[in-house]
């Protein structure tokens, strides 16, 4: 066991305590006030400096840089979800209808662990490690806000993770290229003309039109996206009508599109617009499309993916190549600004993310803490020693 692993094991109980405390007090996106105060307290108690970027929620902290050097960043998201917890755990959420059902409590505790571990090695660090405790990931807003605050300025590489229930503890999912999807939303209004239900020929039926549009949209993924590419279009809501004997004026449906490359993202969006407008026109209706642009795909740099795999094996963890996840993740915005890698940390849980009985194995806490400490420390060394040759 490397020195870092042993040190991480030694703070395991402390990290469990922190994770449980966060788990009991989940806060939704942009409401993470108590969480912010707690993170600041834990960092201050460890003598770690907090940097002021004018954030309402979220914390930026730094370790190292005593002798100058480059800056790398480690990011943890801190927000919870509007879900009623059903785990029955002794440290279950104390707040009705709110839950850390995506394990961001785990991310926060583990990255605090990384800060604690690196604080002890501060003198040897060949640069600065900046910690981004980011709010509002679930709304895909926090990463942008942090970038706008200047927190990513000068950062040469950024590292982040998501826990992964289907990977065992001791494994790290590392992959070059796309690992999480672009997650865009749409709202489509189909405008027809109202009439008596018994006299449809006097109107334009928005329900029949919407039904045809939704059916035609199923052909976009199957007929316009190549077999080796992938995309998802899901219509998740459809609202229309007000009475059994009236044909209304309007039908509204919304949903999401997931893609893993900008090329496919643009193609699917173009086809979506053509299908919606043309099918509506064929029925004499009009369609209005509102796009809710989400984060782009998370696309890892090959050299940092290799560095992550190396950091994992140095600690005795197993790097495995994971399947990309069709979920979205606003870490993608950081990778548009600078280089870096986003990994999946094996947490061996019973349920997928966002499930009311979501849980994870806390044995993964020290592994994750040590992993990011090792990755950040090595990254600073590599940037110093090899510059662009890394
Ligand atoms: Ni999440």
Summarize the structure in words:
By secondary structure, this protein is an alpha/beta fold. It folds into 2 domains: 3-179 and 297-386, Aminopeptidase (3-Layer(aba) Sandwich), CATH 3.40.630.10; 182-292, Alpha-Beta Plaits (2-Layer Sandwich), CATH 3.30.70.360. The protein is built from 10 helices and 16 strands. The strands form 4 sheets. It has an 8-stranded mixed sheet with strand order 1-2-4-3-5-16-6-15, sandwiched between helices. Helix 4 (104-120) packs across helix 10 (364-386) and helix 8 (302-314) packs across helix 10. It is elongated and about 80 Å long. The mean pLDDT is 96. Bound molecules: nickel (II) ion. Nickel (II) ion binds next to loops.
CATH homologous superfamily of the largest domain, by name?
Zn peptidases
N→C terminal distance: 26 Å
- Total number of helices: 10
Inertia-based shape: elongated
Helical residues, percent:
25-40%
Percent of residues in beta strands: 15-25%
**Unreliable stretches covering 5 or more consecutive residues:** none
Within the largest sheet, what's the order of strands? 1-2-4-3-5-16-6-15
CATH class of the largest domain: Alpha Beta
In short:
It is built from 10 helices and 16 strands. It has 390 residues and is α/β, with parallel strands linked by helices. It folds into 2 domains: 3-179 and 297-386, Zn peptidases (Aminopeptidase, 3-Layer(aba) Sandwich); 182-292, Alpha-Beta Plaits (2-Layer Sandwich), CATH 3.30.70.360.
